[in-house]
Design brief:
Number of domains: 2
CATH topology of the largest domain: Dihydrodipicolinate Reductase, domain 2
Radius of gyration: 20 Å
Largest sheet: 9 strands, mixed
Length: about 350
């Protein structure tokens, strides 16, 4: 079977994980990259031996890739998608997805009209420890789940130079903690515990060097009765040799006991009424050299499997808009100081 031809658009900091993933997947061939930054184009085209384009329209016209992986900023998403759907077989788009809900829905309409699958690159749910947690929840390890609490503590948000060495755009985001980072947990909790019924947010800015919020609490109620808390603080850290491995710690409490994810990517289960916990082995392989244990490659492999008819897509953009609505509700809740119900 011929390999699926892949083109990556956008060569910012996070694109390195996408490029590495596509090179590792046997069923794909990375054939082109695109960015407006000439230095980045020269570096990656020389390193990877692929064709480089400075313009996405020119690239799509010239090579008509099977898979288009969009790692460009949100303002570029809709116009790229509207062109890519005409010839590609699958599109993957990084988050934040488009600039707003109207653009997201227009992108989804274009994909649906062309019958071209469009998914959002929401990779936290593909981290190996989160996949294992989902398996354990489905198997009934905790029984009825009462609540879950994720403490985001990467410790990278201090001082006037915060984020500049990796993702400097973070400093200028008017909406930061929830829009850029917390959205991962909104999607993760919705995937684990079902649709979100209501949200309440209390957000704040601790580092005056950035434009948006970098700490706060987001409380969500799910239709199945579980309550989840995203507790974010980018200035504080947690116990780990690599704070970016898990980005924090997760605790899930249920009728049978408590399941905990630590900063080393290890899972621990303490049965109700007992003092000691036991380790829960992780079934999926963990790549310690890659972001999030290899979640980018895992997501890409899942997308290829779906394209080949071997799996159903977990994260279509048409479903992801519900995550975006929850994020919008979080900012409204913070502004109005009240719980927001979602229809």
């Amino acid at each position: 079977m011929a390999a699926h031809r892949v083109a990556v658009i956008g060569l910012g900091y996070f694109s390195q994980f996408h490029l590495r993933a596509w090179q590792a997947i046997e069923q794909t061939e990375l054939i082109a990259i695109c960015d407006q930054d000439e230095a980045k184009l020269q570096y990656w085209s020389g390193k990877l031996g692929v064709t480089a384009f400075a313009n996405a329209t020119d690239m799509l016209d010239a090579i008509q890739p099977d898979i288009v992986d969009i790692v460009a900023p949100p303002p570029a998403h809709l116009p790229i998608i509207e062109q890519a759907v005409l010839t590609s077989k699958l599109m993957i788009c990084q988050k934040p997805f488009c600039r707003n809900l109207d653009e997201a829905e227009a992108a989804i309409d274009a994909a649906n009209h062309a019958d071209c699958p469009l998914i959002v690159h929401e990779n936290f749910r593909f981290q190996p420890w989160h996949r294992e947690i989902k398996r354990q929840l489905n198997a009934g390890l905790l029984g009825r789940v009462y609540q879950a609490h994720f403490s985001l503590r990467p410790g990278d948000g201090r001082g006037k130079d915060a984020y500049l060495n990796r993702q400097p755009s973070f400093q200028k985001m008017q909406r930061f903690l929830i829009h850029e980072t917390g959205v991962h947990l909104v999607d993760l909790f919705r995937w684990m515990f079902g649709d979100i019924r209501s949200v309440f947010a209390n957000l704040r800015q601790l580092n005056p060097a950035i434009a948006g919020e970098d700490a706060g609490l987001l409380l969500m109620e799910h239709t199945g009765g579980t309550q989840t808390v995203f507790d974010g603080n980018r200035l504080a850290d947690h116990v780990s040799d690599n704070p970016r491995r898990t980005m924090g710690e997760l605790v899930i409490e249920g009728e049978h006991g408590t399941l905990r994810l630590d900063g080393y990517g290890k899972l621990h289960f303490r049965r109700f009424g007992e003092a000691a916990d036991v380790g829960i082995p992780i079934e999926n392989s963990v790549d310690e050299d890659a972001f999030g244990g290899g979640c980018v490659e895992a997501l890409c492999r899942h997308a290829v499997s779906a394209l080949d008819g071997q799996a159903a897509l977990e994260n279509p953009a048409s479903d992801y808009v519900e995550v975006m609505r929850a994020v919008e509700a979080a900012y409204r809740s913070n502004e109005e100081g009240k719980k927001i119900l979602l229809s």
